[in-house]
Amino acid sequence: MTENEIKNASEVQSTPEPAAAAPVAEAGQEVGSPASLTFSDDLVGRFQEALDGEDKATYRQWGLALYHSIPDEKAHAEASKLGLEPRGALGHYNVGCTQASAGNFKDACGAFEKSLELDPSFFEAKYNLALAKEEAGDAEAARVLWAEALELADEEEGTAIRQHITEISA
To answer: Is 66 helix (H, G, I), strand (E, B) or coil?
Structure first.
């Protein structure tokens, strides 16, 4: 090894690691097993708090390791900040949920409709589109969508939808 290689190797070894905590195995659990590699709620919570502060610094410290551990709506908001476009039916569905949570029902409807274009059998998108249409004041469109959602629903969901249709028809 040359003198420069030795110097470079020692510099690399002395570089401090980021402050992110590593996952810890539970008692009796083999370190490195799949269950030991899950992130704790505390770690995910600290990541979310950091994102609420300085997101660029957070990504420099944590990278994207915890991005997929945060709730979908928070992940969508972060993706928007990063300039990433939604992909697939689930991505557009998550946009719709984020918009609906913010009270932007017209935008939510557009996102749920795009989700359903990509996957017409996506029950949750149909259900939430019906809710968003209802909240946006389009009762007729909502009634049609509730009937369509009923066709995709399982028994328990169907019961809840029929009860809701009865309530809004009264």
So the answer is: coil
